[in-house]
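REQUEST FORM: STRUCTURE PREDICTION
Request ID: SP-0412
Submitted by: Lab K.M.
Chain count: 1
Length (residues): 91
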Amino acid sequence: MTPPPPHPALLARRARVRRIRARVAAGATALFLGAFSGLYVQMATGHDPVLGTSTAQVASATTSSSSTSSSTSSTSSTSTRDSEPMTTAAS
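STATUS: Completed
RESULT:
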């Protein structure tokens, strides 16, 4: 024997749930592809924001810290400089 056909309201609910799931999946896929396509194009054209700004900051920080350490090392004793922890920021 075959089971009785489902109620029309149940069929309508299943169809609605199927449409909502398909729309959510399509929207998530489109958002993912859009975001990563934009990032790919940005990196492919050479506009990497991380590499562009950190290189300039490292170079200027290294220059200022080396000039500061050379001027303070000539005026202070070496025993106090050895006991202080090494920092990367020029203070």
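NOTES: Residues 8-44 form the longest helix (37 residues).
Reviewed by: T.R.
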